[in-house]
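Question (not urgent): is this output format expected?
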Amino acid sequence: MEISYKSTRGDGETYTASQAILQGLSPDGGLFVPTQIPKLKKSLKELSQLSYQDLAYEVMSSFLTDFTPDELKGCIERAYDSKFDTEKIAPLVEKGGVHYLELFHGATIAFKDMALSILPHLMTTAAKKNREDREIVILTATSGDTGKAAMAGFADVPGTKIIVFYPKHGVSPIQEKQMVTQKGENTHVVGITGNFDDAQTAVKKMFHDQDLAAELARAGYLVSSANSINIGRLVPQIVYYVYAYATLARDGKIQDGEKINVVVPTGNFGNILAAYYGKQMGLPLDRLICASNDNKVLYDFFSTGIYDKNRDFILTTSPSMDILISSNLERLIYKIAGDDAERCRGLMESLSAQGKYGITPAMREQLEDFYGGFATEKETAQTIAQVSKDTGYILDPHTAVAAAVYEKYKAQTGDTRTTVIASTASPYKFTRSVLCALDPKYDSMTDLELVDELHRLTGLPIPKAIEEIRTAPVLHDRVVDAEDMPAAVRDILGCV
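Got this back:
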């Protein structure tokens, strides 16, 4: 079955998967969505016998139907290799009756590696398929993890350049050090004086800027995105939910066909949307528990049906979730609007003009799969400490938000069915927040001293990604205001 893609705001024009991946964002400003969600081609029992790589092919080949088997298998083999520190790629760890899906075993120790390890290969393959000879320029905004993972994936990939914008004062010290020490002649990192939403909004505006696109095209560049707005990011994320379910079934933790819950710490909504797509494929998922931090715009949306970004932006210890404009929610809005692009476009225009929109009661009825919850900074720290005390397992702050919300969910609903929590980052990426949750005395240590202390306390191996930045020189020190981001792009690409 051929799967085409169309825009959430478009006129129904369809694109192949490779065209959608190559463009990143639709010309009309919408996001690409599949014209239909394919069903899983093999039984869950058959899938449970597959390696991560083989299962990835089974899932992704259903969506990326214009890629040949050899093309797609080649992308998967190059992505999920020794860059990951475990052959399982995404191991499930059971602690305290909960199954943590560890998505941080890649090169940058965060879940973004799961998709960004393969996106460069999908994109360069797509360029060849579409006879695109311009150099691909990736423009990306990051709240901390996407940027480093994208650069690690695209570093020195022929025919590409990548420019990453991040909030200068809105990421953890380890996250920033990982980015500003990134090697690769084609990598560029720019701090901005605003927050992530400022960076993301400015990047989207650049994608809509026809004059800039024409200028860059004349210079031999094709602009695309590595953010989760790219369908080439979303499809690989579906894989690990199928893999988690298959692993539980293979290990006898659940019966074949038994429903499970999934808890996802959520900012831009891509990670939990991948779980939703998995459920649409036939994966036996019950509740999709959307966990927010103090920037609880998604919690309020699921509670009221109103999405309202008109509120204070709060810097938290889970910075990758410090987001007030959850871009991937647009794909869900399009779905529950009955694939009505005009209605979806109107709601997004309301968000842009007024900072909010509301959905109809009929649309709200289609959100029953989701449960929204949030955890405060105090609750997040308490969860890190409690889980450590009860099980010896150390959570990063994002995963702790999810664990805290899950406890609230159980208390409210009494639902104790088997549950998987998406563990989205290594605790080594947020050592200060983690250790200070255990004991405030650690706040006096430097960030690298905290790395050694976490190793001493837990015995967890220090990831290569952390060891590498101990003495790595700063290679990127450019900082601009959000309104000057287009000028920075022109300067970096030599178009001034």
